[in-house]
UniProtKB/TrEMBL annotation:
Function: Removes C-terminal D-alanyl residues from sugar-peptide cell wall precursors.
InterPro entries: Beta-lactam/transpept-like (IPR012338), Peniciliin-bd_prot_C_sf (IPR015956), Peptidase_S11 (IPR018044), Peptidase_S11_C (IPR012907), Peptidase_S11_C_sf (IPR037167), Peptidase_S11_N (IPR001967)
Keywords on record: Carboxypeptidase, Cell shape, Cell wall biogenesis/degradation, Hydrolase, Peptidoglycan synthesis, Protease, Signal
Molecular functions (GO terms): serine-type D-Ala-D-Ala carboxypeptidase activity
Peptidase S11 D-Ala-D-Ala carboxypeptidase A C-terminal domain residues: 239-330
Family: Belongs to the peptidase S11 family.
Pfam families found in the cross-reference section: PBP5_C (PF07943), Peptidase_S11 (PF00768)
Protein name per UniProt: serine-type D-Ala-D-Ala carboxypeptidase
Length: 351
């Protein structure tokens, strides 16, 4: 996915619901960011580690853990870093219980918020991504979620690029294979369950362009690393984003009926960015669509047409509003009479 335009550049089963494993934790963190924004928590809020969090997410489980101990009171910031950098299942449970009372209630909040955000494929049964029947989200919705997180909460996105974290004297590494190995990579989250295979939601930025990648179902961590690097490199080398600025001059002039001028200029209302395969730009088709002739009066800034750009590989044209560049006043009575007479004479001549 291109970050700026939200264009899906390549998709294979991208809209199908899948088991996200620990990529779930992007949504867990997002809920906490929203809670901080709403004043329900602060980064400095301390939350107690319950026996359940320790038992179901601690070292003894053999799964991803922050290594919390019963009775500890880490801060929300420490727990967030434990979720993002270490993929700590215990940290997820502590945050869930601290905000919603139970992990089950927190999971319902995750799902409700996801649907409010337009992530319709999402259904969460827990905060960690451990297997549960019906716990799913599509790759496309994970990409959209990642984009929203980067866009809305840039102050917390920095956690995703941290390479390691130490807790209780034990240092663990971030599992994201692109960090430090691929130029511009700065997030987001790995996932793995036996039933789902190895997955990754990743993002990278180069030369002012950002791409977001989601893969899942790889057979090993090495295969995940190799395929993620291959696809992310392709996302930058094979695709490009080009922007058309509104400018001062009209893109075109359109006919006006019953106006003091017979034509009116149109231009873009705002910059238009198009992301596509580099080879597709030379074959792109451009059209201006409008109901015409345009009836006077027309005010500068009125939307009177649409620019459509058809690019190979895209299901639908890229569309952008076109606005009038100047005022065109309506003809007075005498002018309209002359205009009507001209039309009548023209029709008689044609017949």
């Amino acid at each position: 996915m291109d970050y700026e335009t939200e264009e899906i550049l390549f998709s294979k089963n991208g809209e199908e619901a899948m088991i996200p494993a620990s990529m779930t934790k992007i949504m867990t963190a997002h809920v906490i960011y929203e809670a901080i924004e709403n004043g329900e928590l602060t980064l400095e809020t301390r939350l107690p580690v319950s026996e359940r969090a320790w038992r179901e997410g601690g070292w003894a489980t053999g799964g991803s853990t922050m290594g919390l101990s019963i009775g500890e009171t880490p801060t929300v910031e420490e727990l967030l870093r434990g979720v993002i950098i270490l993929s700590g299942n215990d940290a997820c449970i502590v945050l869930a219980e601290g905000l919603s009372g139970t992990e089950e209630a927190f999971a319902r909040r995750m799902t409700e918020l996801a649907h409010q955000m337009g992530l319709d494929s999402a259904q969460f049964e827990n905060a960690s991504g451990l297997y549960a029947e019906g716990h799913v989200i599509s790759a496309a919705d994970l990409a959209r979620l990642a984009r929203m997180e980067i866009d809305k909460f840039p102050q917390y996105y920095k956690f995703y690029s941290e390479r390691e974290m130490t807790w209780n004297g034990i240092t663990q590494q971030n599992r994201n294979p692109l960090l430090g190995s691929l130029d511009g990579a700065d997030g987001l989250k790995t996932g793995h369950l036996e039933i789902s295979g190895y997955g990754l939601t990743a993002s990278a930025e180069r030369d002012g362009q950002r791409r977001i990648l989601v893969i899942n179902g790889l057979p090993s961590s090495q295969a995940r690393a190799d395929e993620a690097a291959r696809l992310m490199r392709l996302a930058f080398t094979a695709f490009d984003t080009r922007t058309i600025e509104p400018g001062e001059k009209a893109l075109a002039v359109l006919p006006v009926w019953n106006g003091e001028a017979r034509e009116v200029g149109v231009k873009l209302a705002e910059p238009l960015s198009v992301t596509a395969h580099k080879s597709a730009f030379s074959q792109a088709e451009v059209a201006i669509v409008f109901d015409g002739p345009i009836k006077a009066p027309v005010q500068a800034g009125d939307r009177i047409a649409t620019l459509e750009i058809t690019v190979a590989g895209k299901k639908d044209p890229v569309e952008a509003p076109l606005i009038a560049t100047e005022n065109v006043e309506k003809l007075g009575f005498i002018g309209r009479a002359i205009e009507g007479l001209s039309l009548k004479i023209g029709n008689e001549t044609a017949s």
